[in-house]
Amino acid sequence: FLVGDTRHIIKEAAKKSCFVCYKMGASITCCETGCDRTFHLPCAPDGECVTQYFGAYRSFCWEHRPQQTVQARPSQDNTCSICLDTVENKISYKTMACPACQDARFHRHCIQRLALHAGIGFRCPCCLNQEPFMTEMLTMGIRLSKRPPSWESIQEVRPLGQRHSRCDAGTCLCPEGREHTEEEGPWQLRLCSSCAAEGTHQHCSSLGNSTYSWECSTC
After folding, report:
1. Which domain-ending residue is among 60, 85, 100?
2. Does 72 share its domain with 147?
3. Are 19 and 47 in contact (CB under 8 A)?
4. What's the predicted TM-score (pTM) here?
5. Given this model, what pLDDT does residue 210 score?
6. Which pick of 1, 58, 161, 196 has the fewest CB atoms within 10 Å?
7. Residues in domain RING-type (predicted)?
8. Same domain (yes/no): 144, 71
9. Cα dist. 83→107, 124, 140 in Å?
């Protein structure tokens, strides 16, 4: 966008209210012809809206979002293939399925986290299908990362279960250094809510006490 275009978008968004939180400044409009629902990007999950992070970057409200069409599977334990917790017994915004094996079920937030963590190695966690699976997930609004899988990082591999404990901010402001952390206050370490592979001191990224999630620049 040109500077003028950006200013126009901001000006128009200021006039529109989000149908999820009802506050002004909603800059995203459903792409369905004739639908005038607008929403904030952070409100999309609560409103069960979908934004496709490819091509024209289209967005849809809960009524017009793309729907998965998978065959009904035989009666099985309704568990997420990623976290192993219970999922709904039907496909919905929050419960998704693999279009290839028609069997894997997973929470939307689980498959989103896996997508950012797996990067270019993203595939079905059950049948390991990649192309149709990735295309379906993109269409359903899952955001992918173009980086290599985090487990192939050239950084030193930490022992299983050991929490990341270093500030990775561009400029660390802590006088005790990047490795110093505290339970509370400005030097409390916040981990990326998507990959948990990077962290920042609260003060180094200007995070307030009421900020409960933070994403690294890669995610």
Report:
1. 60
2. yes
3. yes
4. 0.64
5. 64
6. 161
7. 80-127
8. yes
9. 8, 14, 20
Please give the pLDDT value at position 155. Answer: 46
Local mean pLDDT, 10-residue blocks, the chain (219 residues): 54 80 91 94 93 93 94 69 88 93 89 89 90 94 86 50 77 89 86 77 82 69
Per-residue HEC secondary structure of the chain comes to: CCHHHHHHHHHHHCCCECCCCCCECCCEECCCCCCCCEECHHHCCCCCCEECCCCCCCEECCCCCCCCCCCCCCCCCCECCCCCCECCCCCCCCEEECCCCCCCEEEHHHHHHHHHHHHHHCCCCCCCCCHHHHHHHHHCCCCCCCCCCHHHCCCCCCCCCCCCCCCCCCCCCCCCCCCCCCCCCCCCEEECCCCCCCEEECCCCCCCCCCCCCCCCCC
Pairing of strands 38-39, 189-191: unpaired
The tokens of 17 are what? 């209210």
Residue 40: inside a domain: yes
Claim to verify: residue 148 and residue 107 sit in the same structural domain: yes
